[in-house]
Task: structure prediction
Amino acid sequence: MANDTAALPHGDSKGTFLGHPKGLYILFFAEMWERFSYYGMRALLILYLTKHWLFSDGEAGLIYGAYTALVYITPVLGGYLADKYLGQRKAVLYGAVLLTFGHFLMGFEGTGGQDAASLNVFWLALAFIIVGSGFLKANISVIVGQLYPRTDARRDPAYTIFYMGINLGAFLGSLLCGYIGETYGWSYGFGLAGFGMLLGLIVFGFGKPLLLGRGEPPIALSKALEWGLYVVGLLAVVACWWMVQNQSIVGTLLGVFGAILVIYVIGYSVIKLPAEDRDRIFAAMFLIFVSIVFWALFEQAGNSLNLFTDRHVDRSGVPASVFQSLNAAYIFLLAPLFAWLWTTLGKKNAEPSAPFKFGLGVIQVGLGFLVLVWGAQSVGMEAAVPVIFIFLIYLLHTTGELCLSPVGLSAMNRLAPAHMASLIMGTWFFASATGNFAAGLISAAAGGAGLEGEEAGKELVLSVYSTVGWYAIGIGVVVMVISPFVKKLMHLDTLRDDDDLEGQAEGPGEPQGAGVHPTTKPSN
Result:
C-alpha cells in the first residue's frame, strides 16, 4: 500500500452517500468511464481494421491480439511505478490523461486504406491506450480498499459496487460506441469513447479532495523524479507504438519472458520454499497455464467472432459490435446467481475446488463454439446463422468466465506466500496477455492468415471453431479429472478455501479487474 491509512482522516470524514464514503463514487465513475471507453473502442476495433484500414482478416486478428496482449502486460509496469514512487492517485491520473489522448487520436480516420501517415496516427493512438490502461487499471482498485479501515464490514460491498462500475461501463461502451461507430461513422464511435474517458478524467481530477489523501506517493517525490516517471511512460508509448506494428515481436517477447518467469518461479519455489508453499506455487502455475487456454478462446469475442457476426449472422440490421455488450449484461444477471450457488454448495461441503471450476470454465468456452458451429450447420452453409446462437455462445462463454476469472484471482492470492504475491499476480497478468496473443493467432487462422485481402470463408471459420471447441472440451475434461491431485497440492487443510477476495460475489468481469493488488477479506 502506498501510504498508511491509519494516519489519514477517516474515509467518511467528507460525508457518505448510500452508506459509503463519497470517494468510492469518484472511483466508481472514473473506472466506469474508463471501461466505457476501452470496451467501446474494442467493440469497433476489428471491424475498423478490416473495413477502414483494409487489413486482411489474418493481419487484423494478429494486430488485435498484439494490442490486447500489451494491454494486459502494461499494468505490471504501472503497478510497480505506483507502488515504488508515484502513488496510486497520480498513476491513475496520468493513465487517464494518456487514455484520453489515445481515444481522441482514434477518431482521426485519415483517408483509410494503407495510407502510411494516417496509419502512424492510428498506431500511436493504440500505444497511448495500451500504456494509459496499464497505469490506470493496475492502481484504481487499490484506492478503493484504502478508503476503509481493514476491519470495516463495508469493504466487501464497496468492491462489489466498484466491480459493477466495470461491468456497467463495458456494457454501455460496447452498446453505444458500437452502434454509433457503425451507424454514423468510425470517428463518432471512437469520439464517444474519448468523451467518456474525458469525463472519467474530469471526475477523478476534481474528486481528489474526496479521496482524503489516499494513494499518495510512498516517498518524498521530487518534481524532477515525478516528471522523469512520466517520461518513462512516454517511452513505453513509443515502445508499444513499435511493437503493435510488429506483432511477431510481441509473440517473441511473451515467449522469452514467459519462459524466464516460469523457470524463475518454479526454481525459486523448489530451492527456497518449504514443501507446502512449494506445492501451492505448483498448483497456481497449473491454473495459470489452464487460464491461457481459456483466454485464447474467450477473447475471440472482439476478434474473429465479431467479424463472423458481421458477415454470417442474421442480425436484423443491428450492428455486429453491439453484440459485444452481451458478456457484460450476462455478468450483471448471472454473477449474483453464481455467488449464491458457490455459497450454498460450500455450506453443504459440496463446492467444487478451484481446479475443478477451471475445468468447467474451459469446457463451457469450448461448448460455446460447438453450439455456434452446430447452429450454422443446422441451417446450411448458404443461409445466415440465426442470431440466437450468438446469444448462446456469449452465454456459455460468460458462465465459463464466472467459473474461472474471479476464482483464479482469488486462488492466486491464497496460494502465493505473502512475499511472492506480486510476482504471482504478475504471472497471472502475463498468462492473460499470452492468452490474448494466442487468441490473435487463432483468429488469424480463422481469417486465412497469409491470404492477402481475402475475406475468411464461413467454412474455414467454422472448421477452426470446431477444432478449438473440441480441444477445449478435451482439455477441460483432463483438468477436471486431475483436479483432486491439484487440490491436494493446494494443502487446503492449512489454508481457507473460501472466496476470500472482497467484492468477488459479483466478480471482476475480466482478468485484471481487481488490479495488481486484489484485496482479500480479513481473516476471521
